[in-house]
Each structure stands twice: as structure tokens, then as C-alpha cells.
Amino acid sequence: xxxxxxxxxxxxxxxxxxxxxxxxxxxxxxxxxxxxxxxxxxxxxxxxxxxxxxxxxxxxxxxxxxxxxxxxxxxxxxxxxxxxxxxxxxxxxxxxxxxxxxxxxxxxxxxxxxxxxxxxxxxxxxxxxxxxxxxxxxxxxxxxxxxxxxxxxxxxxxxxxxxxxxxxxxxxxxxxxxxxxxxxxxxxxxxxxxxxxxxxxxxxxxxxxxxxxxxxxxxxxxxxxxxxxxxxxxxxxxxxxxxxxxxxxxxxxxxxxxxxxxxxxxxxxxxxxxxxxxxxxxxxxxxxxxxxxx
Length: 294
Fold this sequence. Notes:
The protein is an all-beta fold. Helix content is 1%, strand content 41%.
């Protein structure tokens, strides 16, 4: 692809390993920082460019491709932007076709659609809005009904303990079956951030908090819950980043970062291990994982 040298964005591999989505968020296609997504398909062990995805209504500074998530087979694709909206593409007879643009309905500065996750079957989506209301943050559950429009808002999720600059919803993970979620709230108060586990309990509201997850190490500015989270395919293991955590070695160093590993058993998330680098900084800001990991 022909892209600007400064246009790097997220790279996303479909869970079945067949399709690779590479974003160029600052690519000046027609307008400055319009953004573009390149799709590659693996066949016979070789990756080949299959399609280029553009915004249906491109604009300067849209940064199409800010975030990407797909269903297990890559047939349902959500693409975030830097302009408070995200787009839905569906694989139809071998090509991805734009089906819907979902825009922020909240007033004021917001980051709606910059954080996205989707269930394996493409029927449930979790959308973040971490800068909503003085960066208290909010998250939204959407359901793909297959109707018109296909994606409809099911529920808004507010942080159980709202905090200014808490940035709830900036980082999260949705379980592959779309019934559980863990949402970060990396505020700077003790213990240095937290995450909230939610589940679809089928009541009213459908989604309710089941647990507040906190790190065993208390550091005010470690921003636990900020950065990409990952979850195993069985939904029983997660890694939560704390990208500003001070190292525990001697001598200590600031902003080294860590990844906290939690496992789920008996309805409770329990910390199992802290992963720290031997050197470097901002460890854990981006995490990727094989969803077959246990």
C-alpha cells in the first residue's frame, strides 16, 4: 500500500487467522488524516492484499481505522475513527461492504468508538467513550439484530464509582460469547486504577457489575486498566495492563509497566501473576494474545 510514513495504526488478525486488517489512520487519501484500512487474506501460507476499506463519507481528520475488531471469521468488522463514530462492514460474497455508521449521541467532547470489541459470532459489541463527562467515561452495549439498522443500542454502562478523569471505557475486553466484559477505569486514586467485571444477567438492566477488580500492588499512578486487555477463548483468563507501574526490582524505575494476569473461577476473578519486563518502559500499553491461551 501507498501510505504516509507517519500513518501507522492498529493491526488486527481475525480470530480464525485468515484475515489481517492493517490500519493507516493518518493516510491522506483525499483529505488530511482521512485514514484507510488494508485487508490481507492468507491462502496457501501466503498473505495477499484482498481489499482496501475507506470511510463511506471521508473527512479531514477522521482517522478511519483508529481501532479495528472483527468476528471470529472476519465477516463482521467494526472500524473506529477519531470523530466520535464507528463503521460496520460485512463480508458479502467475498467483499466487505459498508452497512452502517453508528454515531455518538452524547453531547460534549467524547471519544465514542475509539475503543471497540465484538463477540466471536458478531452479534454483540462493546463500545467505549472514555472522555465523556470530564473523562469520567462510559461504555455501551450494541446488539446486531440483523434488521435495519443492524446494530442497535442495548444498554449504556456507567462506571459504578464515577471519578473525574477516571476514563472508564478506554480499555476493555468482551468475552468471545458476548456475555461477559471487563472494563478498565485507570484513575490515579488508590490503588492506582481498577477494572470492573460485568455480565449479561438477563434482567433489567441486562448488564450488571459482578466484581471490582483491583491490583495487588498499590501504586497511585500505575494506571491499572489502561492499555489493551486480552481474554482467552474460554473467557477464564485475562491480562490487565498497568503501563505506568514502577518496577519492583532494585533499583526501582518509574513508568516501566506491568501486565496483571487474572483467572476466573467460581464467579470470581483472582490475580495469579504480575508480568514485568527485564528492562524498558510502558510495558503493557499494547497487548496481543492467542485466544486459545488458557
